[in-house]
Amino acid sequence: QVQLVESGGGLVQPGGSLKLSCTASGSDFRFSTMGWYRQAPGKQRELVAVITQYGSIKYTDSVLGRFTISGDVAKNTVHLQMNSLKHEDTAVYYCTQGSWYSLVVLRSPDDWGQGTQVTVSS
Fold it and tell me: What angle do CA 109, 42, 116 make, to 5 degrees?
């Protein structure tokens, strides 16, 4: 059974930075795509960024130029560097894995982490 474990969330002031990390355990299966979703209070979960084992990347428009996804997908590790954080980035951030199609098109990843809270507040 695959377990995705996130770390790095917390409280930060507007304009600040945080780095989220995710590692997987419980499987020898090599992932093809990993990514981050988030869910703000009262809103649906939304895709934030994804990265494939070949380095293809996609961001949602609202984080372009501020967030950077990286990692070694073949080793089941992914990070999300978040800069210039805004109040509207406040959400629970979830690490996910699956195929590009499941994460980006279907918006239905194969596995989810338990989530880490990011709060942007002064």
Answer: 50
Q: CB within 8 A of 64, min separation 6: which ones?
A: none
Q: What is the distance between the alpha carbons of residues 38 and 48, in angstroms, rounded to a whole number? A: 7
pLDDT digit string (tens) for 15-72?
999 999 999 887 677 789 999 999 999 999 999 999 999 999 999 999 999 999 999 9
Between CA 31 and CA 97 the distance in angstroms is 7
- Provide the pLDDT for residue 27: 66
* pLDDT for residue 2: 85
Residue 104 near residue 87 (C-beta atoms within 8 A) = no
| DSSP assignment string, 88-117 | GG-EEEEEEEE-HIIIIIS---SEE---EE
**CA-to-CA distance for 83 and 81, rounded, in angstroms?**
7
